[in-house]
C-alpha cells in the first residue's frame, strides 16, 4: 500500500464548513450547529496495485480453505457437546424436586441436601433500604420496594464515524477513500478523542 493521501475541505481563513456548522479557529473550537450537529470532510486515500490485490486474494483463498476444513472438527465437537447437554437436561428433568418458599426466612430442609431442586417463591427485599447518596433519594419508598437500583451516567462528547468508498483504477488497482465524520452524542461509554483521525475540542 502506498502512503495515504490526506484531503480536507478548507477555506482561506483556516476553517471548514460542512453546511450545518464548521470549525472556527478564532473561537477556539468546533461548532456543529445545534446540539446534535457535527462536521465532516476529512479524508484519507490509499492505493493498492494489481499485484497487491492478487496477493491478498490468494491469501484470502488459502485462509478460507483452512477455515473450511477446520470447521468440520469444530462442528463435530459442538454437536457432541449439544448431545451431552441434552442428556444432562433429560436426566435432571427426571430427578428435580420443586420447593416452594412461603416466607423470606424459610428454613432449610436437610433432606434435600445434595439434591437437584427447583425453587419458586415471592421475591422480597425484606427490611433493606435502597438509598442514593448522591441525589439523596430513598429508592425503596419511591418505587414501592425495589430490589435493585442502577444509575446510568452519560457524557456529551464527540463520536467518530467513517465511510469508505472503493473504486478501480486504470491499471487494475484499487483506490480507497475513507472520509471521517464527527457527531455530538450522549453516550455512557467514553470515546477517546486521542484515537481520532482529526483533533477536536470538547463540545
Describe this entry's structure for a reader.
With 203 residues, the protein is an alpha+beta fold. It is built from two helices and ten strands, in the order ββββαββββαββ. It has helices at 50-95, 139-142; strands spanning 5-7, 22-24, 29-31, 38-48, 97-101, 117-121, 131-132, 137-138, 155-168, 174-187. The strands form four sheets. The chain has a four-stranded antiparallel beta sheet. A two-stranded antiparallel sheet has the order 2-3. A hairpin with a 4-residue loop joins β7 and β8 (137-138). The longest helix is centred in the middle third of the chain and has 46 residues, at 50-95. The chain is flat.
Offer a few descriptive terms.
203 residues; 4-stranded antiparallel beta sheet; 10 strands; two-stranded antiparallel ribbon
> Which outline best applies?
flat
Multimeric status of the protein: single chain
Major beta-sheet overview: 4 strands, antiparallel
SSE string, helices as H and strands as E: EEEEHEEEEHEE
Give the count of helical stretches.
Answer: 2
Radius of gyration, in angstroms, nearest whole number: 30 Å
Low-confidence stretches: 1-35
How is the secondary structure organized here?
Blueprint: E1 5-7, E2 22-24, E3 29-31, E4 38-48, H1 50-95, E5 97-101, E6 117-121, E7 131-132, E8 137-138, H2 139-142, E9 155-168, E10 174-187
Parallel strand pairs: 5-6
Antiparallel strand pairs: 1-4, 2-3, 4-10, 7-8, 9-10
Amino acid at each position: 500500500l502506498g502512503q495515504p493521501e490526506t484531503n480536507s475541505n478548507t477555506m482561506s481563513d483556516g476553517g471548514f464548513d460542512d453546511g450545518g456548522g464548521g470549525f472556527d479557529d478564532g473561537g477556539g473550537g468546533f461548532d456543529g450547529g445545534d446540539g446534535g450537529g457535527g462536521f465532516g470532510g476529512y479524508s484519507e486515500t490509499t492505493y493498492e496495485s494489481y499485484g497487491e490485490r492478487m496477493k491478498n486474494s490468494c491469501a484470502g483463498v488459502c485462509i478460507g480453505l483452512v477455515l473450511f476444513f477446520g470447521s468440520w472438527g469444530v462442528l463435530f465437537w459442538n454437536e457432541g457437546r449439544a448431545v451431552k447437554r441434552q442428556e444432562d437436561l433429560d436426566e435432571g428433568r427426571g430427578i428435580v424436586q420443586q420447593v416452594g418458599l412461603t416466607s423470606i426466612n424459610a428454613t432449610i430442609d436437610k433432606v434435600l441436601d445434595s439434591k437437584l431442586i427447583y425453587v419458586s417463591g415471592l421475591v422480597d427485599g425484606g427490611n433493606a433500604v435502597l438509598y442514593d447518596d448522591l441525589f439523596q433519594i430513598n429508592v425503596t419508598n419511591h418505587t414501592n420496594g425495589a430490589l435493585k437500583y442502577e444509575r446510568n451516567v452519560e457524557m456529551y462528547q464527540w463520536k467518530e464515524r467513517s465511510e469508505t468508498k472503493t473504486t478501480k483504477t486504470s491499471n487494475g488497482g484499487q483506490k480507497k477513500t475513507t472520509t471521517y465524520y464527527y457527531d455530538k452524542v450522549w453516550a455512557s461509554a467514553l470515546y477517546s478523542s486521542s484515537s481520532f483521525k482529526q483533533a477536536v475540542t470538547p463540545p
